[in-house]
Amino acid sequence: MTTDETLRILENYLDMMPKVYSKRHSNWVVARDLLLNRTSTAGRTSCIAKCRDLGIDPYGHDLKVEG
To answer: pTM score, two decimals?
Structure first.
């Protein structure tokens, strides 16, 4: 799966969730809940690394690509 496809999936996931979800949870939590759920690598460090691989701020609350 490409980075663009993964970002599109995350955006669609956030669109389906209540607006308060994206305000309360940072990007690394969203990555954990959707991309790494029930995997052995669903820890905070792995989720932050996944966000950085995607080019998004792990501590931000929107999915804007950095740089």
So the answer is: 0.80
